[in-house]
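Task: sequence design from structure.
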């Protein structure tokens, strides 16, 4: 059965009118959702930890952040944009005790509901509005008059109007301008985790690192390896983004196209797909979720070690030097790392 795709014409902001919506967390997703919805005419309040950079940013943007428990008390609808790993503790201490019948609990990713680390009461709506892009893009596209596509999902429909409310929030943040796919918490969670791990954040970066290291170990200069295996990734991705595989291949040389068609499958062969299937199974049966919760509760020792190893790698040091020579890139650094 074909997936249902909605636009702003299929709903309205009516379910949110005369309502108070609390956005918990003013990080990537939170700041985009809060500002966009406010500019769409929704009464938005924000919760953030006092003294943090995100708290200061919320104040700069005209909000007066309050504690999560107070925000939940005041709101008809609660948007949870906190990191997956901290949500259960915040829910147990501040959200859950202040939920009352008729409220709506909305997530931007299905992790904790799907894996049941958060179990809301039966008398509230539980929905998801998940933009397919980071919060800064949600904000930037909204300001341009455009939007980032999103998924909406309904896990619990106590009111009978949960889907209308989800679509209303998608309209408020601008996503309905680009298309709204109707999905489920299960499918969003499992496809999102799989995509992150095997292609977007995991597979792609592992491929880049392997290519860079192969050239350097063969005696080529790291600067050359960086340009060929890292810098030019964006050029190819941009072609893929606007025109798909065919347009990318049309846009490159015949030599590059033959190399891609002939050598690519030798690099990413059947064994990679088998490993992807194993990764998907770990997502589906909850193994990955359990491992991630255990890592977080142990203080993130393996996470930090792996992060630090990449942060200080030759690839990253080479990239910093070369990016500094290209001011047109508007280069970014992780706050506090320089």
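Answer:
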């Amino acid at each position: 059965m074909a997936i249902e795709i909605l636009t702003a014409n299929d709903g309205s902001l009516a379910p949110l009118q005369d309502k108070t919506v609390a956005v918990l967390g003013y990080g990537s997703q939170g700041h985009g959702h809060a500002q966009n919805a406010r500019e769409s005419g929704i009464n938005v309040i924000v919760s953030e930890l006092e003294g943090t950079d995100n708290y200061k940013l919320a104040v700069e943007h005209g909000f007066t952040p309050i504690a999560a428990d107070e925000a939940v008390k005041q709101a008809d609808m609660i948007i949870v944009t906190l990191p997956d790993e901290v949500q259960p503790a915040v829910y147990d201490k501040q959200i859950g005790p202040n939920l009352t019948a008729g409220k709506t609990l909305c997530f931007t990713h299905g992790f904790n509901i799907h894996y049941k680390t958060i179990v809301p009461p039966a008398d509230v709506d539980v929905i998801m509005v998940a933009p397919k892009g980071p919060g800064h893009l949600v904000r930037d596209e909204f300001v341009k008059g455009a939007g980032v596509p999103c998924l909406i999902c309904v896990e619990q429909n106590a009111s009978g109007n949960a889907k209308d409310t989800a679509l209303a929030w998608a309209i408020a943040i601008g996503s309905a301008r680009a298309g709204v796919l109707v999905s489920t918490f299960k499918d969003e969670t499992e496809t999102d985790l799989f995509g992150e791990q095997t292609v977007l954040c995991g597979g792609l970066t592992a491929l880049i690192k392997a290519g860079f290291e192969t050239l350097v170990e063969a005696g080529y200069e790291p600067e050359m390896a960086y340009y060929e295996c890292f810098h030019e990734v964006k050029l190819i991705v941009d072609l893929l983004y606007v025109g798909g595989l065919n347009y990318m291949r049309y846009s490159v040389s015949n030599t590059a196209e033959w190399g891609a068609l002939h050598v690519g499958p030798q690099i990413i062969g059947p064994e990679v797909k088998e490993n992807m299937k194993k990764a998907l199974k770990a997502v589906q049966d909850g193994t990955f979720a359990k491992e991630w919760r255990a890592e977080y509760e142990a203080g993130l020792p393996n996470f930090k070690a792996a992060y630090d190893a990449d942060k200080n790698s030759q690839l990253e040091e080479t990239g910093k030097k070369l990016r500094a020579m290209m001011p047109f890139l508007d280069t970014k650094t992780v706050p506090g790392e320089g």
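The first helix runs from residue 28 to 39.
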